[in-house]
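Before the break, one more example. Copy the sequence into your notebook; we will annotate it together after we see the structure.
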Amino acid sequence: SMEEADILGDRVAIMSKGKMTALGTSLRLKQKFGSGYRMSVMLGKGAEKEKITKFITDNAPSGAKLVSDTSALILFQVARTDNQTEMGTFFEKLDDNKKQLGIQDYSIGLTTLEEVFLNLAEAGEEKEGPR
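Here is what the structure looks like once it is written out:
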């Protein structure tokens, strides 16, 4: 599985259409071919999803996109940025407004290796063109 490859592999090779499309450490592949960061927001009582979504999409330095919305959790794809100061400012604003927005907790991490694989497969399909 991709999770096993991510955890156990020193280097990971990804093949598409019988050709190697990427080779490197899991972290390097995520940085080079990933979609940015995955942000999970756990909702508290009385949380207003629309306000939280607007706050995050308006304040994320390079933009954010709603990926999933359940009764207790909202998942965002946050675009990657090289400006760490902007990300720090974003998290400070989020922390300052956490209680007011009804956010119980949040976490952020790199994109998954599975997403890297899907991005590379999609890029391979686009190169190949229609059949």
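The radius of gyration is 17 Å. The chain is about 45% helix and 30% strand. Try to locate both features in your own notes.
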